[in-house]
Amino acid sequence: MKNQILIENERIDDLDCNGFCIIQNPSYFCFGMDAVLLSNFAVSRPSARVIDLGTGTGVIPLLMRAKNKGKEFTGLEIQPEIAEMASRSIKLNHVEDSCRIVEGDIKNIRSIFSPGEFDVVTSNPPYIKSSDGLKNDNSSVNIARHEIMVNLEEVIEAASYLLNSGGSFCMVHKPFRIPEIIGLLKKNKLEPKRIQFVQPSISKEPNMVLVESVKGGGAFCRVLPTLIVYGENGEYTEQLLKYYGK
């Protein structure tokens, strides 16, 4: 039955969380560790309305739904073929009553959603400025990695618009852009509350950072213990395995 929902080059991957799975196509951008870490890092009440900006395959809404981190989950995706694939993943997991995928542009957020419509916003946005770095020939990969369709400021502005007062915005990004991230958050009335760095190993500097901010929050921020991915034996640390539900 599962194979009947697939089209050419697609596969079904186990999310290792509450029996959930996801449709992916290697021809497009497939989710990585950053999405898994963000779904764990995000804090949400069971009654929360949650939206993921630039959702791609819909992995973050699905993981948060599997962990009961909210009541209603929306994923916004600009690429029609990937949005359609994400919608089929929702049907595959039989969660149409609580999850939905909306095809749309983050830059047009005001014409899609009402202000303050959500309690939690998540995003795993493109990390690289459009003029920086080598680009993969695959346009879908370009859009996921480079600020071609949307930039960091536009994502943060959209998050602030969507959140009600006291709502939280959780994102994963690269540490070298921390000064820019904090500046843009504050500019949009989002106060940083939790920061956690992720290191590949104890001897290497962080290559990811998780940031939670609160709309209209006070000026107080916690820096959480650093998450180490690989131990000295070259295997995943116990802390990371817990993030994967193992």
Description:
This protein has eight helices and eleven strands. The chain has 246 residues and is of the alpha/beta class. The strands form two sheets. Strands 3, 4, 5, 6, 7, 8, 9, 10 and 11 form a nine-stranded mixed sheet that branches. A two-stranded antiparallel sheet has the order 1-2.
Task: Briefly summarize what is shown.
The protein has 246 residues and is of the alpha/beta class. It has helices spanning 33-41, 59-66, 80-92, 109-112, 139-145, 152-162, 178-187, 238-243, and strands spanning 11-14, 21-24, 49-53, 72-77, 99-103, 118-123, 163-173, 190-199, 208-215, 222-223, 227-228. The model has no long low-confidence stretch (mean pLDDT 92).
Helix content: 25-40%
The number of helical elements comes to 8
What integer is the average pLDDT? 92
Shape, per Cα inertia axes: globular
Strand portion: 25-35%
Query: In whole angstroms, how far apart are the ends?
Result: 27 Å
Strand count:
11
Which structural class fits the helix and strand makeup? alpha/beta
Low-confidence stretches: none
Order of helices and strands: EEHEHEHEHEHHEHEEEEH
Q: Tell me the major beta sheet.
A: 9 strands, mixed
CA radius of gyration is 17 Å
